[in-house]
Amino acid sequence: MVCQKDALVQTISELYDQISSLESLRPSKDVDMLFTQLVLTCIPPNPIDVTKLCNKIQEMRSKLIKLCGVAEGLLEMHYSTILGNSFGGVDGENPLDHLTIFPYYNNYLKLSLLEFNILSQHITNIPNRVAFLGSGPLPLTSIVLAKNHLTQTSFHNYDIDPMANAMASKLVASDCDLSRRMFFHTRDVLDVTCEFKDFDVVFLAALVGMDKEAKLGFIEHLAKNMSPGAILMLRSAHGARGFLYPIVDPCDLKGFEVLSVFHPTDEVINSVVIARKLPDMATLMPLMPSSNNIHCGGNHVILPCKCADLQGFNPLSKLNMIEELAADDRLV
User: Fold this and answer.
1) How would residue 171 be classed by pLDDT, with cut points 50, 70 and 90?
2) Do 221 and 141 share a structural domain?
3) Which domain of life is it from (predicted)?
4) Long-range CB pairs of 210-214, under 8 A, 24+ apart, other chains included
5) 82 and 184 both lie in a single domain
6) Rounded distance, CA 229 to CA 146, Å?
7) Which of 16, 67, 133, 250 is disulfide-compatible with 258, CB 3.0–4.6 A?
């Protein structure tokens, strides 16, 4: 009898073979069908730990994540082009009024609400300046947060692709409010240093760093350059969803206090990790009793005393998700 894990891996491997044989990952009937099947296969909650599968499957997973990243970028570019060309520049038309044509728009509404509610649990003041790293040609998270939740906040969107920024900028140009609060920077995130000191919150997109080594490089760079007390919001994945996006282990966030990790169980694919930038560890650690630390492979991540305290926070209770303590199985 084939176990659930073996059946899942076999199905995903077959889909990978079909996807990798496509001539193009641009939106089309075949591309849409295969990626829809892939997502539907990975959505159901599954106890599988994809990081512990054999090397052959790990190699396949790594390639599949990169294919998903390329396809996602092409999908956003496709719809950004439609929105910009069909509605941009037309008298009285605002492309942002037609975002519902994007097939996963409702997912972004749910994910942005989740991230806003999580953020609200850990900050006392509305952030003045937010950075979103890896915003792309259709910066839906920034747009939804700016329009629906953080209506006075300025958003600085960073992307290494000048075409992506040009397309995104065109979309918000017709919106009187967002055109004054949303900015686009064509930069390699690793070249941005002191600017990060100015942000209250930094969002790191799921596909900024599509393998563990690259992701750790971005996290280390942010740890060196963000201001102490600033919030880092990362997107991760859990269970079978780790075949679609990189997984961020809370113990990888050196220099940050991991506050909470949330795993949606509905059609919202990404997990959300929220962390706070710590002061320099060399000055902080002597002041802390050892019993308040989590030990992870020789490194320390601070476990906040209210890490799992979500009781009474009604907006989150309406969402289907699992909330776990950061590194809860590593307490010493």
Assistant:
1) very high
2) yes
3) Eukaryota
4) 210/62, 210/65, 210/66, 210/69, 210/246, 211/62, 211/65, 211/246, 212/246, 212/252
5) no
6) 22
7) 250
Looking at the fold, whether 25 and 141 belong to one and the same domain comes out as no
Q: Which helix (H) or strand (E) holds 230?
A: none
> Whole-angstrom Cα distance, residue 116 to residue 114?
5
Quick one: pLDDT at residue 93?
A: 81
State the total domains in the chain: 2
Residues whose CB falls within 8 Å of the CB of residue 299, separated by 6 or more in sequence, listed in order: 251, 254
Question: CB–CB of 235/271 below 8 Å?
Answer: yes
With tokens 């747009």, the residue in question is: 143
CA gap 164, 295 in Å, rounded: 41
Coil, strand or helix: which one is 91?
coil
Which structural domain, as residue segments, surrounds residue 52? 4-97
Return the DSSP state at 331. Answer: B
Domain closes at, from 97, 120, 154: 97
Q: Which residue has the tokens 């659930």?
A: 4
Q: Does residue 221 sit in the same domain as residue 278?
A: yes
What is the Cα–Cα distance from 185 to 181, expressed in whole angstroms?
13
In the predicted structure, residue 245 carries a pLDDT above the cut 70? yes
In the chain, count H helices and then E strands.
10, 10
The stretch 34-62 carries a mean pLDDT of 94
**Residue 146 is part of a domain; what is its CATH number?**
3.40.50.150
Place of tokens 């996006």: 245
* Mean of pLDDT over the chain: 85
Would residue 143 count as lying in a domain?
Answer: yes
- Run of H or E residues at 138: none
Tell me what percent of the residues of the chain surpass a pLDDT of 70. Answer: 81
